[in-house]
Design a protein that fits this description.
Elements (H helix, E strand, L loop, with lengths): L1 H70 L7 H18 L2 H22 L11 H18 L6 E3 L7 E3 L7 H9 L1
Antiparallel strand pairs: 1-2
Helix pairs in contact: 1-2, 1-3, 1-4, 2-3, 3-4
Length: 185
């Protein structure tokens, strides 16, 4: 009788352990699938932003080129069109951009309008070229866009010795270890 009860208890414990193991494995798979979906969404969102920001920069440089052509008395007659395109992409980017990018867009727009009024009034300034501030603003905008598009959670693909290709995350910028790394540097 004791052997039968021991066998029954062993079978019950084995069944419960098997059930718990299957449940834990399923939870792990669900968590992994959820993380993969979140990662894919982040990558898609960054790729969409990259296209939008590329179009924004192209439009801003188009506005710059139109002002340069007017300044050099080679007006191509496209100032209104290029300015409108730059405004359109600037507004669209401002809707989804982070605060530093929004600030850089507004600052650059102000620099463009200041330079445009100087160029259209044909006043030659000796202290500074009218588009120098615009070029600085373009550089600031590009740095803000690069900072926003550099996602610290985006994994980098690196070659590993044991596997053909592996995915590795870059070092975290948050948390205890990141603070310790910053202190040691």
């Amino acid at each position: 009788m004791d052997a039968a009860l021991t066998g029954l208890a062993g079978t019950t414990v084995g069944a419960l352990a098997g059930f718990a193991g299957a449940w834990l494995a399923q939870r792990g798979q669900l968590r992994q699938q959820r993380e993969q979906r979140a990662y894919a969404e982040r990558v898609r969102w960054l790729d969409d932003k990259k296209g939008l920001y590329r179009d924004l920069l192209i439009a801003m440089y188009g506005w710059h080129d139109s002002l340069v052509s007017i300044w050099l008395d080679e007006d191509d007659g496209r100032l209104s069109e290029t300015r409108g395109t730059a405004y359109k992409w600037g507004v669209e980017a401002s809707l989804i951009a982070s605060e530093p990018v929004q600030t850089a867009i507004e600052d650059l727009r102000g620099r463009f309008l200041s330079a445009q009024s100087v160029i259209l009034s044909r006043t030659r300034t000796t202290e500074r070229a009218p588009l120098e501030a615009v070029q600085e603003g373009l550089a600031l905008l590009e740095s803000a866009l690069r900072a926003e598009l550099s996602d610290p959670h985006r994994p980098e693909v690196r070659r590993r010795s044991g596997r053909p290709w592996g995915v590795q995350r870059g070092p975290s910028t948050e948390g205890t270890r990141a603070v310790e790394r910053q202190r040691s540097n």
